[in-house]
Structures are given as structure tokens and as C-alpha cells.
Design a protein that fits this description.
The protein is 32% helix and 19% strand. By secondary structure, the chain is of the alpha+beta class. It folds into two domains: 206 residues, Beta-galactosidase, Chain A, domain 5 (Distorted Sandwich); 409 residues, Glycosyltransferase (Alpha/alpha barrel), CATH 1.50.10. Strands 1, 2, 3, 4, 5, 6, 7, 8, 9, 10, 11, 12, 13 and 14 form a 14-stranded antiparallel beta sheet that branches. The chain has a three-stranded antiparallel beta sheet with strand order 23-24-25. GO terms for molecular function: hydrolase activity. Belongs to the glycosyl hydrolase 15 family.
């Protein structure tokens, strides 16, 4: 069995809306935190093959393997071809909501091992290491399986064959003949069914749950139809995996410290939920028909904004709403491909990132227009508080979208998102008749715009820059084109797109975030920035060029259609935390932009996309403000 580091694109992901597991092409569960995604790990071989722990099932002999999901599900199958036969390992975690209401809730990791042809010698290794490998973990035999204990953690693995527990792990080798099936059930919370018939039932129910949740359509008539359709379906299933059922939070990724620079220190914990991702999340989920999840996402962050004054809004929170995300380094772990330090927690929660206020208002704005959601008195008060805070603090310095860890600066994109916060607040007030200091918001909105155009645009570069009166380019400037602060065809918007295309983009359309962030080492191209480029090209009328970039980015997807945070442009390997939820949101929204470009806006109708909403506003208003309104899109967090 492979015991060294595997490429990220050799992993699939499964989960149950509470936690996730990464399963390698070799049949090893190399990452899983139990019982929740933010819990300490039970298996962390992806961060250290020697001490991290794994749960592996695979052939004892040489093999070739491939992975695939059952159609329109998050049920993963790994198929092994050996000289003597073929076997398949089917992995899933039952989704609580999929369980029969008459049965108790089921939480566990289910692994079905089937020989489909010939015979196969199967190796099994069960080696959990609790608390990121820091706890003393004991594995002992019990009736029909083994247990693992360490600190306050406890696992029970139901096994069809006896395993040897010498050496602190459970291992064994056995033979499967054609049509033989064995089940391994890892329980961590309560008694879960282990009888083969019950396991098969749970497999069928879980597959049915995913298929009923994923949007169904006639592909030729689907808003997301065409060549990107399967990528969109996989992306929405990834987003659902990253949706924490109890609170509606959407985590950025289920992993920590997978490096942006292999061998370097750009390693961050992404098992949290960022406010910044709100607007684009709502847009993607709504247009896929997942209105409930979109509502939950907005209401969650509005609730957090009401927990204190607006100054207390953090850029990110734990999935339960906790704000204390103290950062810690785990010096005992090697890190993925020897990239240290390994971090848990994220001190970016303590940063000032003014752009998040725009994202919070934008998410609310998206929901109001896309599904006719009412703005409650409580929500309107929260919005007014946010708008007033923006008026008072928009000209403060901050860390910004990329969570830069140097001295705070006047970052152009942060100012633009402050403008967005006030612009959308004014529009909601106008449309709903709600009362507030709207004239003050208008005045401040205009002041921000004048300042951005004066200090945030470089005539020599013919582009917006990263910071006021600076000369460094930043891919976040692509989102200025989509903010509405200037019309799509304004020469400053077009010039910015051209500058990013020339200076921050590879020949095949991969986009870097910036030129320099002050940290040692070099990171890869940021997947989501490439999708921003697609959207900006569509907005400025360069649709054919946008398709070229989009298709080029899709070529970097893993065989399962998954994306990490970044791509190494030299090797083509995926790097950064995996799978990255907002790489997939970017894919969905870019597919939507490209499809919109194929239609006449006047005939499509109010589908809820921001582009259509804004075009309708222009037609209704006919005023100067509306002439400057453009498609609204919002970015995801950075990792620094």
C-alpha cells in the first residue's frame, strides 16, 4: 500500500453534512475529523504519513485504480485492477436527513468491499491517531471488530474478518473471490447498523438523498446546460458536502494546512465560514434551486451581525458561530509534502477586513431580489447599522480580501465593497420603502466613488491597483468590473481587465492573485481568480475569449471534477486546501455568466441572477444611478 504523500487530484471526498473524509485512489482514508469538521483529526496521514493515521483498504498485490462517484451523488467508488481480479471499494457517510424517521440517527463511515471478477488478496489497515496524532491511541480487539481509544475519543470498527492488533494498529490480509462482499463500518457517535442488509439499505437511501437534492433537469433546457453541465452538478454536490447542517454555515474547505507553496509556510486552516463568500454563495445556490440553503446562509450571518455592534463583525467564524479561532502550530507533523508549519485555527478572524460589510449587504440584496424574500424589521435594523458603520469607517486601513499579514493599507477593493454596501442599501431602501438615513448613504457612496477613482486608478498602468496610490496589480480588481461602480464598457474597467490579463495571467488563463504579498515563497494560480476573469470578460463583451479561459481552467480539474484552491502552473498539480468550496462556486457562477451571454436578457425573465436584476433596474429606473449599475458578484477569502 502507498504510504507516502499522494497528489491532491488522487483524492475523492465524502461526508454527511457534519464532517468530511478524503479517500485516496489507493483506498486510504487519509483525512477525517470526527465527529465534526472542526474537530481534531482521527486520520491525518495527508499531513504526515508516519504519525497522522489512516484507514486503508486495498489490494495486497500491484494494481491500477480509478475513482468515480455514483451518478449525481457523493458516494465514492474506487476500482482496483490486479493481475488476479477486480475489486471495488464503495465509501459513503450516511446523511442524517436521509435516514428513515423510524430508525435512530446513523453516523458513521461505511466501506463496502466487493470482488467483481477473479479473486483479490485484500490488505486492511486501521490506524487512527487522535488529536492530530498527539494523543496516545490504543487499538484493541472486541467482538466482531476493534476499538480505538485515546483521550476522550472512541471509535468502533465493525469488521467481517479478524484483524491483528499488535503494534497499536489493526491489520489483516484476506482473500475475496468473485461476487464476495464485505462491509466495514466505522462508528464514532452511536450504534450504527452493521448487518449487510441494513448497510445496503443505507447505501441506497444515501444515494437517493444526493440525487434528490442535486438539481435535476433536461440538460438541453437547463440554465447550466451545455459542456459545463457535469462540472456544475459535481460542484453543487461539493458545496452541499461543505454545508454544515446544524447552522447553515458553508466551510471554505474540509482541510487545514494543505500548502499554497509546496515546501513553504503558506499553510492555513480553512475549516471555517467566511462572510466574504456570501454574495456568490447565494447567487450559485439560488440559481440551482437551493433556496433553503441560500436563506440559511444569509440569515446566519445577519444573526452574527446582530450579536454585537457592527464593529464586531468578523471576517470569518466557526461553523457554530464561535469567534475565538486562536491559531496554533502543530510542530510534530511533517505537513503535506513537508510543508510546515501545520496550523489549526486562523488568526485572520481578528483582522479588519472592510470589504466583508459589502459582502454581507450584497448577500441580503441577492436574496431579496432573487426570491422575493421580505426584509424583516430586524434585518433592516442590522443593515442600517452596517451602512452607518461603513460611512464612519470606509476610509480606515485594513488587511483586505487576501488577509495580508503585514501592515494594514488602504486597499482599493475594500473601498469598492464599502461602496457596494451603501449602494445596495440605498436600492433596498428605495424598493422596500424602508426608512433610514438614505441621503447620508448616498453622499458617502459618492465620496467613496470619487476617492477610488482618484487614488485607486493608475493612469500609467491603465488599471485599478491593489492599494491607494500604489502601482501593484491585484486580481481582485476584476471584481470592480462586476461591482456596478462603473459601467461595463468604461475604459477604466476594460483597461483593468486587460492589465490583469497581461500581467497576472498565464497563457492558459490561470490567474495569480497579486504580484507580491510580502511572504516568503511563491504560491500558485488562484482557481477562483480565473473564474473572475471569465466573468469580467463576459461583462466586457469578450465572450469567445471567456469561453477559452473557462475551458482551459476546467482542464485542470481532478479526474473526479474537483478543484483545490490553487493550481501550480508549471506542474499542473492542484495545491492548497482541497476541495475548495469557492473554486466550485466560481465554476457555477462562471457557467451561469457564459450561458446568460447566449440569451437575450429581455426574453429570459427574472431568473434571479444579478445581471438580469440590474438590467431590469436600469430599464425601470432610467436614472443616472441605474446607468452605472452592473452585475454584482462577490469574492471568496484569501488564505494569507
Amino acid at each position: 500500500m502507498q504510504t507516502d504523500f499522494k497528489p491532491l487530484e488522487h483524492y475523492g471526498v465524502i461526508g454527511n453534512l457534519e464532517t468530511c473524509a478524503l479517500v485516496g485512489r489507493d483506498g486510504a482514508v487519509d483525512w477525517c475529523c470526527l465527529p465534526h469538521v472542526y474537530s481534531p483529526s482521527a486520520f491525518a496521514a495527508i499531513l504526515d504519513p508516519d504519525v497522522g493515521g489512516r484507514f486503508a483498504i486495498g489490494p495486497a498485490d500491484e494494481y491500477e485504480s480509478e475513482q468515480a462517484y455514483l451518478s449525481r451523488t457523493n458516494v465514492l467508488q474506487t476500482t482496483f485492477e490486479t493481475a488476479s481480479g477486480t475489486m471495488t471499494v464503495t465509501d459513503f457517510m450516511p446523511v442524517v436527513e436521509a435516514n428513515n424517521e423510524e430508525q435512530p440517527e446513523v453516523r458513521g463511515l461505511y466501506r463496502k468491499v466487493t470482488c467483481t471478477e477473479g479473486s483479490v488478496e485484500v490488505d486492511v489497515e486501521f490506524d487512527p491517531q487522535f488529536d492530530y496524532g498527539r494523543a496516545d491511541t490504543a487499538v484493541n480487539p472486541v467482538t466482531d471488530g476493534v476499538t480505538a481509544t485515546g483521550d476522550d475519543s472512541h471509535l468502533y470498527l465493525s469488521t467481517p474478518t479478524d484483524l491483528d492488533t499488535d503494534g497499536g494498529a489493526a491489520r489483516g490480509t484476506y482473500r475475496l473471490d468473485a461476487h464476495d462482499t464485505q462491509w466495514y463500518v466505522l462508528q464514532y457517535d452511536m450504534d450504527s447498523p452493521t448487518d449487510a442488509e441494513d448497510c445496503e439499505r443505507l447505501l441506497e437511501e444515501t444515494a437517493q438523498y444526493w440525487r434528490e437534492w442535486a438539481h435535476s433537469c433536461v440538460e438541453s433546457e437547463c440554465l447550466f446546460g451545455g459542456q459545463a453541465h457535469e462540472y456544475v452538478v459535481r460542484s453543487e454536490l461539493v458545496l452541499k458536502l461543505l454545508n454544515y447542517r446544524e447552522t447553515g454555515a458553508l466551510i471554505a474547505a474540509p482541510t487545514t494546512s494543505l500548502p499554497e507553496d509546496v515546501g513553504g509556510m503558506r499553510n492555513w486552516d480553512y475549516r471555517y465560514s467566511w462572510i466574504r463568500d456570501g454574495g456568490i454563495t447565494v447567487r450559485a445556490l439560488t440559481n440551482l434551486g437551493h433556496v433553503e440553503e441560500a436563506n440559511d446562509y444569509v440569515h446566519r450571518f445577519l444573526k452574527l451581525s446582530r450579536m454585537g455592534d457592527s464593529a464586531g463583525v468578523q471576517p470569518l467564524y466557526g461553523v457554530e458561530g464561535d469567534g475565538e479561532l486562536e491559531e496554533e502550530e502543530l510542530d510534530h507533523l511533517r505537513g503535506y509534502r513537508d510543508s510546515r508549519p501545520v496550523r489549526i485555527g486562523n488568526e485572520a478572524a481578528d483582522q479588519r477586513q472592510l470589504d466583508v460589510y459589502g459582502d454581507l449587504v450584497l448577500a441580503m440584496y441577492q436574496r431579496f431580489w432573487s426570491d422575493g424574500q421580505d426584509v424583516t424589521n430586524e434585518d433592516w435594523k442590522a443593515l442600517c447599522d452596517i451602512a452607518e458603520y461603513v460611512c464612519e469607517h470606509w476610509d480606515d486601513e485594513g488587511a483586505g480580501i487576501w488577509e495580508l499579514r503585514g501592515e494594514p493599507r488602504h486597499l482599493v477593493y475594500s473601498k469598492v465593497m464599502c461602496w457596494v454596501a451603501l449602494d445596495r442599501s440605498v436600492r433596498l431602501a428605495d424598493r422596500t420603502g424602508r426608512k433610514g438615513p438614505v441621503d447620508h448613504w448616498r453622499e458617502c457612496r459618492e465620496e467613496i466613488k470619487e476617492t477610488v477613482l482618484e487614488k485607486g486608478f493608475d493612469e500609467d498602468l491603465n488599471s485599478f491597483t491593489q492599494s491607494f496610490e500604489g502601482a501593484e496589480l491585484d486580481a481582485s480588481s476584476l471584481l470592480i468590473a462586476l461591482s456596478g461602480i462603473l459601467p461595463f464598457d468604461d475604459e477604466r474597467i476594460v483597461g483593468t481587465v486587460d492589465a490583469v490579463r497581461e500581467h497576472l495571467t498565464t497563457d492558459d488563463g490561470l490567474v495569480f492573485r497579486y504580484e507580491d504579498d510580502g511572504l516568503p515563497g511563491e504560491e500558485g494560480a488562484f482557481v477562483f481568480c480565473s473564474f473572475w476573469l471569465v466573468n469580467a470578460l463576459v461583462a466586457t463583451g469578450r465572450v469567445e475569449e471567456a469561453w477559452d479561459v473557462f475551458e482551459s481552467v476546467l482542464e485542470h480539474a481532478s479526474p473526479l471534477g474537483l478543484f483545490a484552491e490553487e493550481i501550480n502552473p508549471e506542474s499542473g498539480r492542484q495545491i492548497g486546501n482541497f476541495p475548495q468550496g469557492f473554486s466550485h462556486i466560481g465554476l457555477i457562477n462562471s457557467a451561469l455568466f457564459l450561458r446568460e451571454a447566449e440569451y437575450d436578457w429581455a426574453t429570459v425573465g427574472p431568473l434571479g441572477q444579478a445581471t438580469l436584476i440590474q438590467e431590469r433596474e436600469r430599464q425601470e429606473d432610467g436614472d443616472a444611478d441605474a446607468d452605472e449599475t452592473a452585475a454584482a458578484d462577490a469574492p471568496q477569502h484569501g488564505g494569507d
